[in-house]
Amino acid sequence: MNAPLPRLSGGFAEPSRDSAHGFRAILNAMARPGTVLDLQAGHGPAPISAAAATVLLVLCDRTTPLHLAVSHDTPEMRDWIAFHCAAPLVAAEEAQFALGDWSSLQPVVRFQIGTAEYPDRAATLIVDHHDFQGPQSNLRGPGIRDTAGLALPDPRAFARNHACFPLGWDAILTSGNRVAALPRSTGVF
């Protein structure tokens, strides 16, 4: 039996179990902004982290347009996504999901923020290789008792995004096996 091509290997070892655990962790991260969780199920080619690979495997499919920022737009990533997710790759302005490190996702004003009629038509930014050890920003909003703290790559960009609520993009921060989320409903101060 032939071994799988290196660029197509990875994914989930046990798809049913791993996708359920991954979905639960992502849901918990979105419901509790500022909480950093372990997410170890998925694997993909460099440069994607295990946590970001899991997010793609759980949330992206052929109906979810995905933008790859330059930091993650490699032939190996394109092949891996085509094989494991089948998500169509699109320009930033058309994306429901976008994957890249923070600097490669700039300017974030390119991404959809929804409309008054359909605020759910906003993009979700998957910020990979995030520095969870950086200076903490204070967070307040749904899912947070009093306040929470989380390192953010650009607190002012997240504060401006929150000012658009109920419009705005959502963010999932990943690095290694760690994930946190910052929905647009979360205030940053």
Counting copies of identical and different chains, the oligomeric state is single chain
Largest sheet: 6 strands, mixed
Could you give the distance between the termini?
56 Å
Strand content: 15-25%
Order of helices and strands: HEHEHEEEEHEEE
Strands side by side in the biggest sheet: 1-8-7-4-3-2
Shape from CA axes?
globular
Kindly report the average pLDDT value.
Answer: 94
Total strands: 9
Task: Name the poorly predicted regions.
Answer: none
- Percent helix among the residues? 10-25%
Rg, Cα atoms, Å: 16 Å
How many alpha or pi helices? 4
Features:
alpha/beta; 3-stranded antiparallel β-sheet; 4 helices; globular; Phosphonate_metab_PhnH; PhnH-like_sp; lyase; Phosphonate C-P lyase system protein PhnH
Question: Could you characterize what this model shows?
Answer:
Keywords: Lyase. This is Phosphonate C-P lyase system protein PhnH. InterPro entries: PhnH-like_sp (IPR038058), Phosphonate_metab_PhnH (IPR008772). GO terms for molecular function: lyase activity. This protein is α/β, with parallel strands linked by helices. It is built from four helices and nine strands. It has helices spanning about 15-30, 50-60, 75-85, 155-165, and strands at about 35-40, 65-70, 95-100, 125, 135-140, 150, 170-175, 180, 185-189. The radius of gyration is 16 Å and the shape is globular. The N and C termini lie far apart (about 55 Å).
The gist of it:
The chain has helices at residues 15-31, 50-59, 75-84, 155-163; strands spanning 37-38, 66-68, 97-100, 124-127, 136-140, 148-151, 170-175, 178-182, 187-188. It is α/β, with parallel strands linked by helices and 189 residues long. 42% of the residues are buried.
